Amino acid sequence: MAWISLFIAGVLEVVWAFFMKQSDGFTRLTPSIVTFVAMFASFALLAYAMRLLPLGTAYTVWTGIGAVGAFIVGIVVLGEDASAMRMLAAGLIVSGIVLMKYSSNA
């Protein structure tokens, strides 16, 4: 259950990052509210996962999912650059997440 919670927390990190961008510096009400609700839920699920998973593993996986997810959303939804160097960097992050998951005893 900890891994499922951690995955959902990571997805919610992508949600709050996207809506933070949409909030235009917290000047738009609805995206600002979505940002804070998703942020709270993401932190709560991360805290739950950390009860069972090592700190380094949980935090690394959470930030990795958020980073790669935000990267993908930026390219697909916001039309950001998908250069080879950025793709390689994202691939390295995913590799690190996989290695961290399989190095954990939980």
From TrEMBL:
Gene3D superfamilies linked: 1.10.3730.20
Keyword Ribonucleoprotein: no
Pfam families attached to this UniProt entry: Multi_Drug_Res (PF00893)
Membrane topology annotation: Multi-pass membrane protein
UniProt keyword annotations, A-Z: Cell membrane, Membrane, Transmembrane, Transmembrane helix, Transport
Keyword Transport listed: yes
Organism superkingdom: Bacteria
Family membership noted in the UniProt record: Belongs to the drug/metabolite transporter (DMT) superfamily. Small multidrug resistance (SMR) (TC 2.A.7.1) family. Gdx/SugE subfamily.
This protein's name: Guanidinium exporter
